[in-house]
Amino acid sequence: MGDRSYSLKNVLLETGFDYIDKDVIKTKTGLFCVEVDNGKIKNIKPNQPSANLIDAKGYLMIPAFKDMHAHLDKMLFGLPWQAVSEKRKTVKDMIAYEQKMIPIWLETSIERTEKMIDMLQGFGTNFIRSHFNVDPTSGLDSLKNLEKALQNKKSTADAELVAFPQHGLFYTDTLPLLKDVAKMDAVSFIGGVDPYSLDGSIEKAMGAIVQLALDHNKGVDVHLHEMGKSGIKTIEFLIDRTLENPQLRGKAFMSHAFALSRLSTLEAEKIAARLAEAGVGIVSSVPFGDIIIPIPILRKHGVEVLVGNDNIQDHWNTFGSGNMLQKANLIAELYGYRTEFQLSRTLSFATRYKLPLDDNGNQQWPKAGDAADMVFIDASCSAEAVSRISPVKSLIHNGTVVF
């Protein structure tokens, strides 16, 4: 739709909770008209049957989804199916494979990145935090191709970029490249990966990453797969540096942080309190099996836990669905969020904590002046949408109807 001023009718919105003995038993909803103008929600009015209005068909309107951990630059999406190889077991094995394959992948990465964005949008996502490789093999080409794809999709999707030295800062000679990339306005975060096991020193690698972020007013988002003491020490390093440099508060993240899965409840409580004190967040793809991240403990202490799909179809993993609602559903199942109230709150992991109702059942979204970023779901309420992974029927990004 080219016209960004329009009105929708038969929009299902959540209006409150029904209670019995202080327990939420149902989410109240109603049909409304929603006016959109120049990328903003202009007004919410009582429903009317006018034929001049676009019919939302009674679908539930909720905030659009945000995928906070993706690798749009090197997915295998769009190439022939390829499962993960048992021959590549370590990060260093993967680096060797990437050094061989990246030049081939780059030949078609622009087109395939656009297709990947299309798929994410089909599941209701309009915002993506994407890492892009910075390494001697990629040079700046991963960034250049990713920027071209995002430019081609700029009317329907937003993104923020993380400069990601996948092959190590010092394991390969990547630090000089990362210093160049850190100066670029297009880059929002400086990344890293497993500083101890890959680069041989937490202090050297993490120190360089944090200093680049400070020097260029960037955030930090480091991949940490390491278990045990080195993993916890790396998390503690980022906490300490963020406490020393408050400008990093709310801009410093550990992705994966698998070491948290090996902590006792008491240990998890202590580090969660420190993460919250420093304003350091955790980004997770919600692993399960022998790796369970203590997300409920982190949230109890106020740690920002962001969620993303990470691997969708790539050489690391093929199980990412691209569906943020499915991620919320996984969290609900994994941590036992089963009630109407709990399920409605779990939607927040797909929307980066933007919810139609606050914890007391007061309507807080949408409001006049809000960005017109929303999805329409075939569900009666947020709780059902999470529990049933209900189909996404439409996405609107900044007032533009994507589909």
Model description:
This is Amidohydrolase family protein. This protein has 403 residues and is an alpha/beta fold. It folds into 2 domains: 100 residues, Urease, subunit C, domain 1, CATH 2.30.40; 257 residues, Metal-dependent hydrolases (TIM Barrel), CATH 3.20.20. It has 13 helices and 16 strands. Strands 6-7-8-9-10-11-12-13 form an 8-stranded parallel beta sheet. Strand 15 and strand 16 form a beta hairpin. The longest helix has 17 residues. The chain is globular. It starts with a strand and ends with a strand. The mean pLDDT is 95.
Structure in a nutshell:
Helix content is 34%, strand content 25%. It has 403 residues and is α/β, with parallel strands linked by helices. The longest helix is centred in the middle third of the chain and has 17 residues.
End-to-end gap: 9 Å
CATH class membership of the largest domain:
Alpha Beta
Low-confidence stretches: none
Mean pLDDT, nearest integer?
95
CATH superfamily grouping of the largest domain: Metal-dependent hydrolases
Indicate the CATH topology of the largest domain: TIM Barrel
CA-based shape: globular
β-strand amount = 25-35%
Query: What strand order characterises the main sheet?
Result: 6-7-8-9-10-11-12-13
Question: Based on helices, strands and strand pairing, what is the structural class?
Answer: alpha/beta
Order of helices and strands: EEEEEEHHEHEHEHHEHEHEHEHHHEHEE
Level of helix content? 25-40%
